[in-house]
């Protein structure tokens, strides 16, 4: 589904990504973890060419993105959704219009647009909030809108850049549940960048550990499940007691 072949990226003299090759298979929930500055976000942004590599090839869904014209790249990007840590919603648009905007850009006819916006908002459980503005929503609700917007063009792949890093543990678990549902019910391949080990361990089946712009290792894991992420009062007490042992 996603193939990077000897991809490098430099910012001025600094080489942030050093000749990385990796393959992500269709249907995977693939994690990328590592310390701050390891190059995780840059690697993710290379997968939809938000960052253009200095060297190497990026292939998504059978298309070599690095060889496309800008018009074809725009089309190819419709099958690659993306969500961000700070949600990146348009402040002066309603929930409905935030989701509709990507469909307008893709020139989807009005009635079809309406059906898809409602369908996506229902999928993330926000159909009752379609007239609200981002400032009226909680962090978890904002991320749900961002997920609905990313799904509107029916992507094959969803790239997630620290999707839960601004959220508390309960809301984190909620959003991870939505992402798991996107993967299982819609068959969307998911790539998650996070510095939170619990997040990566909960839903990923394969994880790349990055260090200094390189792949340190890639491991297959059995997802631990989302239920382990909690902020119930008991959970806090358990963690404190464990820490004191
Ligand atoms: N647009 C840019 N211009 C200059 N340097 C950049 C740019 N983007 C990233 N870098 C540098 O590249 C390196 C990798 O950054 P990146 O954001 O990919 O790391 P990260 O592992 O995602 O870190 P964090 O978890 O802190 O976001 C860092 O040293 C960063 O300062």
TrEMBL record:
<feature type="domain" description="ABC transporter">
    <location>
        <begin position="2"/>
        <end position="237"/>
    </location>
</feature>
<keyword id="KW-0472">Membrane</keyword>
<dbReference type="InterPro" id="IPR003439">
    <property type="entry name" value="ABC_transporter-like_ATP-bd"/>
</dbReference>
<protein>
    <submittedName>
        <fullName>D-methionine transport system ATP-binding protein</fullName>
    </submittedName>
</protein>
<keyword id="KW-0813">Transport</keyword>
<keyword id="KW-0067">ATP-binding</keyword>
<dbReference type="InterPro" id="IPR017871">
    <property type="entry name" value="ABC_transporter-like_CS"/>
</dbReference>
<dbReference type="InterPro" id="IPR027417">
    <property type="entry name" value="P-loop_NTPase"/>
</dbReference>
<keyword id="KW-1003">Cell membrane</keyword>
<keyword id="KW-1278">Translocase</keyword>
<dbReference type="InterPro" id="IPR003593">
    <property type="entry name" value="AAA+_ATPase"/>
</dbReference>
<keyword id="KW-0547">Nucleotide-binding</keyword>
<dbReference type="GO" id="GO:0005524">
    <property type="term" value="F:ATP binding"/>
</dbReference>
<dbReference type="Pfam" id="PF00005">
    <property type="entry name" value="ABC_tran"/>
</dbReference>
<keyword id="KW-0029">Amino-acid transport</keyword>
<dbReference type="InterPro" id="IPR050086">
    <property type="entry name" value="MetN_ABC_transporter-like"/>
</dbReference>
């Amino acid at each position: 589904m996603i193939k990077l072949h000897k991809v490098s990226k430099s910012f001025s003299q600094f080489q942030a990504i050093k000749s990385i090759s990796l393959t992500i298979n269709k249907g995977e929930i693939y994690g990328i973890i590592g310390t701050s500055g390891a190059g995780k976000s840059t690697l993710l942004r290379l997968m939809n060419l938000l960052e253009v590599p200095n060297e190497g090839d990026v292939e998504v869904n059978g298309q070599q993105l690095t060889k496309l014209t800008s018009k074809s790249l725009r089309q190819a990007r419709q099958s690659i959704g993306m969500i961000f840590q700070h949600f990146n919603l348009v402040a002066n648009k309603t929930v409905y219009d935030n989701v509709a905007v990507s469909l307008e850009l893709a020139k989807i006819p009005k009635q079809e647009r309406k059906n898809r916006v409602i369908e996506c908002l229902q999928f993330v459980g926000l159909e009752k909030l379609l007239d609200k503005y981002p400032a009226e929503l909680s962090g978890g609700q904002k991320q749900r809108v961002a997920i609905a917007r990313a799904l509107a063009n029916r992507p094959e792949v969803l790239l997630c850049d620290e999707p839960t890093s601004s959220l508390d543990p309960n809301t984190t678990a909620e959003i991870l549940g939505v992402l798991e549902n996107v993967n299982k019910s819609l068959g969307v391949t998911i790539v998650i960048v996070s510095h939170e080990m619990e997040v990566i361990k909960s839903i990923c089946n394969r994880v790349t550990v990055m260090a200094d712009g390189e792949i340190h290792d890639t491991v297959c894991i059995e997802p631990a499940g989302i239920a382990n992420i909690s902020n119930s009062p008991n959970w806090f007490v358990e963690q404190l007691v464990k820490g004191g042992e």
